[in-house]
Amino acid sequence: MVVELERIPNLQRQLQIQESISIELTAQRDTLLETVKLQREQVDLSKEALIAQKELMAVQAENCKKQIEAAKPSFWHRIGTHFTAFGIGAVIAAVLVLVL
């Protein structure tokens, strides 16, 4: 019985230590839950940014294709250039024939 009475202060200290550990663990758990929540929000924002970036890249690719098409000479433009060159060549040939 005396031994049991001597153990009471030790048990009370152990109980206080366990309570403080429990409080600390609860605070850590709450902090971790908040961290997980913030990380999930960050992942969601990153996904949205990635989707927006993909859409922007698609629009930019389409614009580049249009610019490339616009930079290429059209069929009729090339025909006109060839006829102009043929005409100039014919005039030069005619001048050379007349001079000789």
Tally the beta strands. Answer: 0
Based on secondary structure, the structural category is mainly alpha
**Main β sheet profile:** none
Percent in helix: over 70%
Please give the domain count.
Answer: 1
pLDDT < 50 stretches:
none
Walkthrough of the structure:
- With 100 residues, the chain is mainly α.
- The protein has one domain.
- Helix content is 95%, strand content 0%.
- The protein has helices at 2-71, 75-99.
- It is rod-shaped.
- It starts with a helix and ends with a helix.
- 0% of the residues are buried.
SSE map:
Blueprint: H1 2-71, H2 75-99
Any descriptors?
95% helix; mainly alpha; 0% strand; 100 residues
Give a short overview.
The protein is about 95% helix and about 0% strand. With about 100 residues, the chain is mainly alpha-helical.
